[in-house]
User: Fold this.
Amino acid sequence: MREAIDFVELKATGQLPSPKGVALRVMQLCQDENLSLKELAQTIQGDPALAGRIIKIANYVNPNRSRPIASVTTDTLILIGIHAVRQVVLGLSLIGNYREGRCKLFDYEQFWSQSIAMGSAAHAIASILRVAAPAEMFNCGLMSGIGQLALVTVRPDQYCEMLAGLQDASANTLIEAQRAQFGMTQRDLLLFMLQDWGIPKLFIDALYYHEDPLASGYAENSRPLKITYTLQLASLIARAVMQEDPDDSLLSRIKAFSALLDISPEHLDEIAELTRMEWQDWCDMLDVRVASKAAPPQPTQHTEDPKLQTEPSAPQDLPAEPLPVASHPLRILIASANELQCNMLKKALLPTGHELHFVDNGKKVLEAFSRINPHVVIVDWLVPEMDGLAVCRALRIDPTGEKIYCMIVNQFEDERRKIDAYEAGADFVLHTPISPKLLNAQLTIAQRYARIHGNQ
Assistant:
């Protein structure tokens, strides 16, 4: 029996999944350009359960295990990273309130594991391509299935009845069943919900079309199309990392979409490894079961991109093993006045055999440069005396400084700051909390860089 859904009436009931209360206020504060960390910390403390989870996550990334974090302070938020806080709050709000329900045939844990995997993949791809802020792309991946969750939440009995007759059905069949049963599909509900939350139209449209990019009508090489392709690729990579043995067809599609986005095989490997690591970490922090099996079919109206038919079908392997200890140790000069950050870098880099040198302000980088002759400089954006951008510019003026690999550590992930960093001469921008595996992956690039320039 058909039970048509009217979004306006449904919204009035308050049944739709959405961030609520303190979580909604935190997300709004994190989007404010004039963000006050003190106000953000006070807002989080207003929800003891949320504050407890933020403290747990802060201790998860805290390099000083002998001094556990016991409260939400501005230092706690800086340690985690502002955009990471927003990600956590969104995830906690949605997952905490909608991780189980009356539809017994719908696997809620599997759904959230898949959503986190897609968010992690979108974040990893955006970190390489810079088509949009990585934190925004994480949120897009996390929200990609929210329309389906809404249908399951507001009509659990009817949705369960529908699923009972569609075991092993194709994705298109499931979409048509949604339309016949409810008068709308999960994509329609996704559109209404994201518009109601005030999500930028650019991301709403990309999410709406990501399973069928050609239907978007976007111009070739345009930013909207690249974001749409990014979400399609993120969906494929998420499926691959969740499967113990991804099939060749899936791996071929991953390779094809990577080619459309000009992602090299080396970067694809890096994206896959970072996705797997972040997926597992976020699942641990959000108490979601890591599902190591093939993801269930997701409703889609996918139309195969004709460009993909010309791509070679050889599978691209997705590595799971951590990067090895450095075979050629590097001299690394680190500039930071943040003790937590320095301890984190020591913990990440000392086991790899690299030679580390620390200074606590930007001017000391230039003073120590000729003495140390580093292969790599890692400088915090907010280091005293000379900030990270000024240090990077000063290094690039010197012919010797042109030969080193320079990384800037930034607490924010907005696109403008990343552009400023690259224009100043940075080779890579690290975001807090720093991922040791991503950092070590960048150092393998720095090793090749040193060999090319003869900097031994």
In short: The first helix runs from residue 7 to 13.
